[in-house]
């Protein structure tokens, strides 16, 4: 069983920056992909960015050029640097991890990001 613990959410003004972090623990297998999703009130959960071992990161069109995802494979952590934040980035952000060997996907508890003046 993989546990994901997120940190770094909060309130920021438009144009500001935040950094989200997620630490994974408890996995006996390689975590092949880690990433971030978000869910705004009344909307479906959507992909923000993912990073897979041996591949380039992928981003949603709405965040490309403003957000950067990075991963520390040795520590099983993933971070999301969010710059030039907009009110429409307001959402609960969820960390996600995928283990191919067991075909399991795991979710963190979510962290609130609010962009408002």
Please write out the topology.
Layout: E1 3-7, E2 10-12, E3 18-25, E4 33-39, E5 46-52, E6 58-59, E7 67-72, E8 77-82, E9 91-99, E10 104-107, E11 111-115
Parallel strand pairs: 2-11
Antiparallel strand pairs: 1-3, 3-8, 4-5, 4-9, 5-6, 7-8, 9-10, 9-11
- Indicate the percent of residues in helices: under 10%
Q: What letter string, H or E per element, gives the SSE order?
A: EEEEEEEEEEE
Quickly give the structural class. mainly beta
Reported for the largest beta sheet, the result is: 7 strands, mixed
Q: What is the general shape?
A: globular
Number of discrete helical segments = 0
Radius of gyration using CA atoms only? 14 Å
Uncertain segments are: none
Beta-strand share of residues: over 45%
Q: What's the pLDDT, averaged over the residues?
A: 95
- Separation, N- and C-terminal Cα atoms: 40 Å
Per DSSP E runs of 2 or more residues, the count of β-strands stands at 11
